[in-house]
Amino acid sequence: MTIVTGKAEARRRLQSGWSGVLWKMWEHRADYAYVLPAIAVMLIVIAYPIYYTIELSFFKTPPGLQLRDKIYVGFDNYTNILTSPVFWKVTWNTMIWTLASTFISFVLGFGSALALHRDFIGRGVLRAILIIPWVISAVAASYIWKWIYHSDFGVIGAVLVGLGWADRPPNFIDNVSTVLPSLIVVNIWREFPFAMIMMMAGLQTVPEQLLSAAKVDGASAWQRFWHVTFPHLSSVSTVTILLLAVANFNSFIIPWIMTGGGPSNASHIWITHIYELAFGRQLWGVASAYSVLLFLILMTLGYFYVRALSGNERKEGRA
Amino acid sequence: MTRITLGGAVLRGTVSTALVVSLSASALGAPPVDLSKWSPEYVRSIAGTQDFDTAADCGKVTPLDYKGRLTFWYQGVFEGDPDLLRQYYKEFFETFRKTYPNIQLEEQALTYNDLLDKFRTALLGNAAPMAVRLQILGGTEFAAKGYLQPLKPEDVGYSTEDFWPGAMKAVTWDGVTYGIPTNNETMAFIWNADIFKRAGLDPDKAPATWDDVVKYSKQIHDKLGISGYGLVARKNAGNTPYRFMPQLWAYGGGVFDEATANPTYKEVELNSPQSKAALQASYNMYVRDKSVPVSALTNQQADNQPLFLAGQLGMMVSHPSDYNVMLDLQKKATGTDKDKAQTVIDNMRYGLIPTGPDGKRAVVFGGSNIHILKPEYVEGGKVDEPAAKAIICMWTSPEWSLKMAYAGSNPGNLNGFKTKWMKERLDSIKFLDVTTSMLPYGIPFPALPQSPEIMNIIVPDMLQNALTGAMTVDQAADDAAEKVKSLVEGKL
Fold first, then answer.
1. Which residue of A124, A267, B88, B149 has the fewest C-beta atoms within 10 A of its own C-beta?
2. Is the ipTM beyond the 0.95 threshold?
3. What sequence ranges are listed for the domain ABC transmembrane type-1 (chain A) (predicted)?
4. What domains are there in chain B, each with its CATH number?
5. Contact criterion met (CB < 8 Å) for A152 and B295
6. pLDDT at residue B151 greater than cutoff 90
């Protein structure tokens, strides 16, 4: 027979329903106190700017007026953006930039990781060399590549002309057709080491005994990769791809320094375009509307990123 | 070695007449120099005729023992400037600290292309400096927005008549003066006589018209396989409007009517037949003849300088300081490159900027102005006015407005032309009198808050749209005109 005291009954009632949530929160009051400073900082540096950007996106900010004198225009900024041919051009550029940079960086990084996973003489040196593009300053790298690509006296042009393979230096960044692919090459060069490091870390987690067992069972190298290694890397691959995609969506330094979004907007991606709208043209309202749209896209990517991470945790928990 | 193709009575007459037309927009009181007599010879005759005691003059504005604190941003030297200018900037701040030992100065140098963006951002956060020296293009925007305090030359011990009337326009908004010009500049046309000779052109004669520039550029490219004219069309770079606008105005075009004596800025003229003819000239050089650097769409004048020094570029528009820049670059060269560079320097010639088909000659009346911010936009909410006036008095003094423009520009304070340093400068800075002769043809950018966007974004966009083939010349000009119209009408 269970004897229910008045105190225990009160506690049971509190633990059920809405009041139960409050009770649980009360029980974890110390945990909340620990994270409170971080939440407060986040509210100030993240929540308020997001709110202000959303508010600003409904206003017009002519160059002759201060920001505080902004004019309410409702959804006009969003309408103007979505009906502007520049928006679609910049969006198309951003898609190409993000997808190509992410996919090729990942494939190259994965390939490099697999190559460097084997033990061979000079592996450490090679690994250090391959990481260099990722660790050097993006600004410095952009200036170096600008000179490498220079349409009149760039390094590539000089080599090609010197070898007699071209009459004049190729036009990489002063041409609307070649500028974006040229910048994507620089971006891939800079970020594939990140994918390589992530995948190398992932490869460390593949159980050696499984690979050995598969080998004993007669599985070929490809079969071992496809049926043992790759499934183990699916979670880290998803996270790497999502992180690359978010970073590429947010890219600014390489296109801005190398071309400023030109020529003729051919290398403008969302972030550079937003920067030019805000700081070059002072169209803070339009730039804010662009930012809100970009925020929604990145939030969607962020959702999948968190889901991927949670999936990893669940898998690890099951294991 | 100076074989400049100017001089002669005809030129002097033209210069004087043009000066009166273009610079007498406001009534001249009693200017320290007689602008109606302006000529290289006149400038020489007044140089070194008057002494100035800067510390004593500024001591009357702000006592030399004044104790205070000043935050100050300025458009400083950049990669395309000569070392000489760096030395003078360093010397200025050292002298200021010696003259006003009790003023705690926190200065920050920013390059031309970065300054506006950073200053705007700082203003939005009420974190601007107490005083700022901005490019001539920026003053009107910030005055119109109400960020600047009224400030006129009289506030720091000078007279409005001590400054170029055209320059005072750029610091005036709605009838109120909001700043003081520090320096004013006009560029000149530079060519390599050796390249001209090898291309079958007269080595001592600059192209007379912009159509000649197109022709010469093609001839140089076709005969020697190098670039003829140093076209610059990068976006968000001050170099682009400074080189394209003289061409646009010479053909009789303009963004508005800014090239007229009394501009109203009412009608957009960027798509007029004259403006289109100017754009067509650039198109002909870049697309049709391929006679200019391919990198013109992403480069700046700083990229043209090494090309010129390497003997790979025949002509360009730039400052007199480019001669000193070439000397600096030549010193850094080694081996045979050093000798090649010396040959280019020996063959460097300066002349007046070419005219349009109707004989119209024009150049951007450039420079910088210095301003004081209102306290509410300044970090800490306070402006130390006496300290701000002390540095402004010094920078705009005859002595320092000349020294800080020693190699590349002209003093904002006309009294600078009378100093002993001007005399010394005339003897040491080659080709200075050519750019000084261009001053009367100077046209200020439209004094509108929208000017930075027009000059730094819309005009370069127009060039890029035409030169990349993204649009035809007509479409690019129409598109740019429409953008200017929308901007001015506040549709965006």
1. A124
2. no
3. 91-305
4. 31-185+366-443 (3.40.190.10), 188-363+450-488 (3.40.190.10)
5. yes
6. yes
